[in-house]
Amino acid sequence: MKTPLQEPTFLILTALAEGPMHGYGLILKVAELSQGRLSLRPGTLYGSLDRLADDGLVTVDRNEIVDGRARKYYRLTNEGISLLRAETERMRRAVEAATSRLNGHGAARPLLAPLSANLVGGVA
Question: Residue 122 — very low, low, confident or very high, per pLDDT cuts 50/70/90?
């Protein structure tokens, strides 16, 4: 799988880092992790889970019958854990770089002077 991961993929893997989950639980957890910005539809989620399983990042943990309905629980594989750790570290370094630049002198002043400052008598 390519990195950087798309946000839905990252959040699915992040949700599964807590332990095995079924599809509806994943939909709720991804919405929570994204603070409501991302709402996965079942078709999108299961398509993603199929691709992640094909890539060896998730696997079916178990199947259960709850109230007469089948529930499939998914979990991260060791490869999925490794990829999530690597992606988390890549993102941490990127945030650290941006934060250090924002806290530096460059962020306190604009990169370009306002357009009006370049005009003399209203003519450039």
Answer: low
CA–CA dist 45, 43 (Å, integer): 5
Under a CB-based contact definition with an 8 Å cutoff, are residues 12 and 30 in contact? yes
Least Cα distance to 31 among 17, 45, 47 occurs for 45
Distances from the Cα of 82 to the Cα of 13, 17, 33, 73, angstroms: 11, 11, 20, 20
Q: Which two tokens stand for residue 106?
A: 């460059």
Report pLDDT digits (tens) over 36-94. 999 999 999 999 999 999 999 999 999 999 899 999 999 999 999 999 999 999 999 99
User: Who's near 34: CB < 8 A, 6+ residues apart?
Assistant: 7, 11
CA distance 15 to 52: 13
In this predicted structure, the answer to whether residue 107 has a pLDDT above a threshold of 70 is no
Count of all residues that appear for the chain in the document: 124
Instruction: Please indicate, yes or no, whether the overall pTM of this predicted structure exceeds 0.90.
Output: no
> Which CA distances in Å does 66 have to 26, 59, 69?
16, 20, 5
